[in-house]
């Protein structure tokens, strides 16, 4: 079975990474790429990596034209824009993996607080499945629409969820100090992400105000069974890709470092894309892969977790294909190893 | 007055940076550079930056030969090696700024616990002044020997000390999540600091075991007036120089963010090298300078400080010259602006 | 059919890249990895990328032990060491792709001049096929031993060979100004490739003395049908991977830029891994791929070619698998797209 | 004597570097910084490096207002814009160092060919002195207006001029293969200079069309005493600053490598900022300095020169201050060592 697949908003870095994975997928035919540009640029003019690999033009198509060409779409549109068009795809019977933030939160009031404005599709967001297969595999497999997780929430949630679920750490007082490569800032020209501004510099940004904070808290609250409180501090690293998340939590039992590590190992023993390590993860070891590497440490009165992902793969496009595989009943690792 | 100055162990990055500063210092004549190499290499063969700038050879000299040429030495030797030779310089009447870790701690037992072995000069270490001018200016000015602070402790201490001293934050439960450029790892060839290992990677190291942890705690204990407890997590950033320290502390009063910032601004109003900012510091803004940029934030139930230094300047060689200026009564900013 | 494959010298960057490709190869079982280390390290201790991916230890095996486990070996040994052991593998009936320089040249005197010492297997080197499929596909398919090309010679030869063969440029007076990422310098700790030495620096090296110069000249001489003379200047770029080669040649006819481009396009129209472009190649566009991107320009009295490869893929391990595919009759692109 | 100095167009990287140098200059008072922005931003909001260092706002001033505050201006305006306002400053009696390209060429027709449009001040451009002190020191000292050289032309000219002047190389058939850090592309947001586009990539640009080509040819023609012909190929290096120029020329006599090196050493023996080296220059060795490092090699039938500068210092702002020092009779190295 071949699925005809489209990408909405194909000019950015997540779309680029998605295409790299999809061209290797044996069950996929890429049939539509969209953009707001009017001049129908060839994909190799936007992403020269696809010269001689993919012979397709980007089209300024609306939902109806896309729906004529596709069974499934990956949404790489900005927030709000995404939820404005996705309902039309769903009504047309397509499956959708949405990489925007629009369907991740399930409380419209929280959405409005952090993203501003009313949610364009508020009823649906309340029940949309959150596409972290390690936590919600069954729901994803049955869904027509999956909300692909944010990059930071992926690394933080995978590290902390088992510890919360099993009562090893407390749900309050969590600190997530996270560091991301510059591709996370997108491909729109801005002074802050010019090479001579980012290179040879390290800085925090969005301290206390980043929109991934409520997303992390929502995830951890599910696992804790009570409200989780997280201070989330993102930083910008002078490298293309990769996120390292260093999390600090208060222990809720007297488990040793060895017991903490065992819990993680047991939790993820059969997960194809989570690797629990006793040594320290590095973003380079997961670069270009769909893996999340995790370790845990006991330091003084705190439990530390350190996790590494590639923000463009496990933090975006790899996870999207993992979700796609589940939604269509393909082997979950197809095109991802 | 011209001070004849020597550098012990002149082949590494701190010595390189020290020389860059000292060649601009109007009161300094550089008269001795030492190494264990036997072949008397010209400084421009070790650091090509000094071609046509400094015409001096590195000598495999012992303390007596150095003492004949110098009034003052900067020690860039490894720990333990440093404290084994420094007593001889002091007895010969020289002033010494020691950039090694040997005289920073003042408890020999703590030294042994973290560095291993007995301290070679234990009595002296108990009373050696810690060369952070913003905190110990008077003692430095009167000292014959100054222990130059570690890079990480400098950034963390300058951010937290005023908050502790004035009862704004608690001394326990402090987290210092710090990120350093690769020059901090030194110039000795190791696989871990090869370009293709560090580049495009981000990782933690020395989690819970780094030797700067007790140094930070010693500093903060002085300011808190009670034992401070710090979890210190260093990370390696793919850049040459710079340290950003993100610290999380529990508030000990109900001061607002504005009041926290005002306290820092007042504390450092007359300090030439500490800049309190309302926006977020970046290592690039202090690169190549002796500045420490600091801000403070109130996020949920925590006080956050973010500080940036150049690890080779304010975190090592710039601070060393600042101490030198104080020890000789020169204007503190000489050669540093 | 599954080929049991071994890698000789599996600790470096070419072996790492080879393994990344081979784990995706549907016809390959990796059965042996060798090292001189005695402690049988697990592959994930050497290359943490293979944690949970490849469960194999590196063995200090000699040819006989390797031959018992494998049908084919990839040699990632240093020059001279490689040609000292490869004859034993060939006698044992194995196929060999040698990534060292030992069998690339076919004149033992030239080898001695550039590499020093007598060649350990001089007779065989004279007739070993040079593993550039675009030029020697038929010979590779029939060979038991293939000499995998050097990284720089690959990019330069693919750009210039068609122009020489068709009489568009002269064989003398060629200049190849080439720029490579730091992974080309290998994984052995050296001061010159420490992060703080390479980063934020650009330099030439091996000017007039690099061993790829005679290899390039040998290749171009075959195509010109007369002795080619090349000045080859390699440079080190602060990036992990990629080679850009800017070549300057004297035209030997009055072809326009358009005609030059057409010649290249026609030559490579059916080549799966050579992409002729009208715009300028960038190493990023071929990073992680087996592609060679080429363009050509006419500037004043010169023909310029600019070609880009990933030095670790098309310049080493990808080419090795391409050769392997040909030697075993697999589709040439298997595991490489 | 204190000179009141202004910078026209103070928001970019050359202005930033100029300010870093000027704040150290003992004879300079910075009195005006201009921008087209209307909101009078503080310099520390544009360049946070100057927090607590320089207390000045950028003003949207025209020539008359600037002239009221300054004795001398440095022009960091775009080409054409620069020559449109500079005549007013000159008429008001100010001295001007123009860092734009407007007065570098001395043939209006060549200007029109490469920059487009008529030159706004064509008569003056014909006679404006070219601010390369090593070649035109006397003219600079007497000038009211100096055209500060382009970054690429500086490195290429300093390497080749002595060889041309003394008949060691031919004026035709010169190739200048140059590599620059990304700060050379300026601070205006563009997709091509976003961090994730430049980082881990190496590419050529402006092949055969870069505007520094006629500037290089004009310089070399002066020295050769006959028309020089140069093929100039610029490349973009993933680093902040630095230019390495690898030049290939045909020898015009039978001088040995040693004789070539001696000629350069003698030529530049008394130059404070040119360092002739026997080993290979690296951009890191001149980073942050006003030095130009040069070496020369004889390879086969060519003379190779390799030169390194910091594009922002010797290639722009350092050279501008060197010119300023000459124009005011200050020691040429003031604020530059």
From TrEMBL, chains A, B, C, D:
The entry's active site is 151
Q: Where is the protein localized?
A: Cytoplasm
Domain Semialdehyde dehydrogenase NAD-binding, first and last residues per copy: 4-143
Q: Molecular function terms in GO for this entry?
A: N-acetyl-gamma-glutamyl-phosphate reductase activity; NAD binding; NADP+ binding
The cross-references to Pfam families, in alphabetical order and at most eight, read: Semialdhyde_dh, Semialdhyde_dhC_1
Domain of life here? Bacteria
Name the enzyme group at the top EC level.
Answer: oxidoreductase
What the entry lists under SMART domains is as follows: Semialdhyde_dh
Q: Which reaction does it catalyse?
A: N-acetyl-L-glutamate 5-semialdehyde + phosphate + NADP(+) = N-acetyl-L-glutamyl 5-phosphate + NADPH + H(+)
Which pathway is it part of? Amino-acid biosynthesis; L-arginine biosynthesis; N(2)-acetyl-L-ornithine from L-glutamate: step 3/4
Keywords on record: Amino-acid biosynthesis, Arginine biosynthesis, Cytoplasm, NADP, Oxidoreductase
Listed GO biological process terms: L-arginine biosynthetic process
What EC number is given for this enzyme?
A: 1.2.1.38
The UniProt entry's GO CC annotations, sorted and at most eight, read: cytoplasm
Q: What does this protein do?
A: Catalyzes the NADPH-dependent reduction of N-acetyl-5-glutamyl phosphate to yield N-acetyl-L-glutamate 5-semialdehyde.
Which NCBIfam families does the record match to this protein?
argC (TIGR01850)
Question: What family does this chain come from, according to its entry?
Answer: Belongs to the NAGSA dehydrogenase family. Type 1 subfamily.
Q: What is this protein called?
A: N-acetyl-gamma-glutamyl-phosphate reductase
Origin species: Bremerella alba
